[in-house]
Give the backbone structure.
Amino acid sequence: MFNLIQHFNKDRVLIWSLVKNDFRNRYLGNVLGVAWAFIQPATTIMILWFVFQVGFKSMPVNDFPFILWLVAGMFPWFFIAESISSGANSILANTFMVKKIVFRVSLLPIISIITALLIHLFFIGVMMCMFIFYGFYPSIYWLQVLYYLSAAYILMLGFNWLTSSIVLFFKDVGQLVSVIIQLGFWVTPIFWSINIIPEKYHWLIKLNPLTYLIEGYRSSMIYHTWFWEDISGTIYFWIVTIALLIIGRATFDKLKPHFADVL
């Protein structure tokens, strides 16, 4: 991790250049260009809000307007899903760098996360503006979003190192990642509350590390509780995250010498 931070600082100009290039490649040729990165998540939020708030007449959750409760879970999910999806294909999408350029390939999965992160920072601002509009003003707890954002970044990094390296040898991993994203959306309490499940089964839901992140955003914006108040959940999350980071990087380094041959 220390070496990663050193390399990140050393190559920060290159990384920023690659992030901008990633934006262009994703949305080049579209009339609205990069705007689609913001239109698609916003449209999803509006559809879900209309279905559950207007259609099903969803009641406020813990005395909070449903739309605020929803965005506090959906916005971090957009970041997670985009990071996982693009990260798995980060090496396949940049084969010329692997085959023809002396380049630190381990940075490629990071680029995809940073691209998703820039969009997510915009939506964090939108989320905070929505809370203020509804009369819920900034609190010191809101700063805790940065902690959960950092935690999500590290979790995604380990996952992307693992999947981006394996997918070169087993193309089915790309399809598996899509299934994981779809399954993760439904088994993570994003638009449903964990409290609808009997308390004795809560531990099953909390085995999913994404639950820690989604509930963490809501703890920061809505419930106003600190992450250390859930000490068992915090310890479990970081054990899983660090294990995934170690496994992901070890797998990446093991397979990296064969990338150019496979590509």
